[in-house]
Amino acid sequence: QTGHITIDPGFKNTGSTTSDITYLDGEQGLLRYRGYSIEDLADKADFLGVAYLLIYGELPNEKQYDDFVGKITRHTMVNEDMRKIFDGFPVNAHPMGVMSSLVSAMSGFYPESYSKNDMEEIDLHIIRLMAKFPTIATWCYKKSQGHPINYPKNNLDYTSNFLQMMFALPVEDYKVDPIVSRALNKLLILHADHEQNCSTSTVRLVGSSQANLYSSISAGISALWGPLHGGANQAVIEMLEAIKEDGGGVEKYLAKAKDKDDPFRLMGFGHRVYKNFDPRARIIKKSADEVLAALGVDDPVLDIARGLEEAALNDEYFISRKLYPNVDFYSGIIYRALGIPVNMFTVMFAIGRLPGWIAQWLELRESGQAIGRPRQIYTGETAREFKEIGDR
Ligand code: SDX
User: Fold this and answer.
1) Can you tell me which atom of ligand 1 is nearest the CA of 278?
2) Where does the record place the catalytic residues (predicted)?
3) Ligand 1 centre and the CA of 269: distance in Å?
């Protein structure tokens, strides 16, 4: 502390804003979007209904829902010139890097010309983002497979459209499995918002300079990519696979996670706010059993995950630090059972989180909050004279 400035690394004890969107209680493990519990929404709502709730503040009635879904359906195609940018990426470019680039490029195709309060045009940008994001996401997968991309089909719902763009091939008919579509719908709802997490805070900070929506969301995608945040769902599966390759014993990895000299962390464990079970992890764990059973998938890493969780929840190191499985611990097991490749797991997180980012950006925009500009405490050199290069 110097003068009136207090340093709070990682903002562990700093609130950045008030918000009406998402409530979470870390001690009790509660999560609500606009007052509705995540348990109810995951069971009874569909993803676009939850997106509407987050963005506009209320669950949509039938007319509002049909209008919202209809607008999104009519904007799922992407400007063909975006393909030229996309085709420039190497085939093994990580999809998160491609997504943040292409969403930023959208600001070139759909330039912001709205004044501060032209809600109608902002709404059109929101619809375009919600509609085109999944389409672009599937290009990454198709390219990695050497397959032609698929165009959206207006007769399919949001998750079914995503699945057909991902997995349909020109040489055969593709039928969306309702079990897969329902499981994906639930996963997207569970990822839709989470108050002021790292990527959402990034979206808000960029938006606070009055940068446009696409640039703000592009920054959020980049922040989510990190393995300590959304990238953890990919890191969890890679960790579980490593344990499986290593004979499946979890004790060695628990020891590594507890060893301060070892950079290894138990990925998918721990949370800044939840000091109890992450309510989303509880739902996803239950859903993993149901989806794998329904699809007849037997994934050996699911047993390893359960064994790891069991061992950690009985280990003093994790108990004392209140480290529980978080949203990323079991989600990858379901994504994999749905046929989604590991390097697309964090993109799935981003598809889910998109309405939350949009809702938070809109709330910030409407609040007229001052530009985000934190202070620092300087600890560098005191004033010194310039030295010519020959004297250095
Ligand atoms: C998400 O914020 C959100 O809401 C995020 C998210 C969302 O929906 O947006 O919920 C999504 O990002 C979930 C988190 C995904 N990340 C991981 O699973 C990566 C592994 N977990 C961690 O790195 C960590 O737990 C964080 C990043 C999630 C939280 O980090 P914090 O709050 O900064 O906690 P910390 O690193 O200070 O850890 C506190 C203690 C430390 O030990 P001590 O120094 O006190 O001895 O717990 C230890 C840490 O070493 N610890 C772990 C651990 N997580 C914390 N030790 C081993 N394995 C872990 N996973």
Assistant:
1) 10
2) 271, 328
3) 7
How do the residues of the chain divide into helix, strand and coil, expressed in percent and rounded to 5?
Answer: 55, 5, 40
Residue 10 tokens, joined: 């990682």
What is the C-alpha to C-alpha distance for residues 24 and 27, in angstroms, rounded to an integer? 9
Strand order in the sheet with 36-37: 22-25, 30-33, 36-37
Distances (CA, A) of 48 to 100, 188, 351: 22, 9, 11
pTM higher than 0.90 for the full model? yes
Nearest ligand 1 atom to the CA of 270 is 25
What is the C-alpha to C-alpha distance for residues 236 and 295, in angstroms, rounded to an integer?
A: 22
- Ligand 1 — pocket residues by CB below 6 A? 10, 194, 197, 228-230, 232, 257, 265-273, 321, 323, 326-328
Residue in 203, 264, 309, 321 to alter for ligand 1 test, most ligand atoms within 8 A of Cβ = 321
Integer-rounded Cα Rg, in Å, for the chain is: 22
**Residues 210-225: pLDDT tens digits?**
999 999 999 999 999 9
For the segment 135-153, the average pLDDT, to the nearest whole number, is 96
pLDDT band of residue 276 (cuts 50, 70, 90) is: confident
Mind spelling out the 3-state secondary structure of 254-288? HHHHHCCCCCCCCCCECCCCCCCCCHHHHHHHHHH
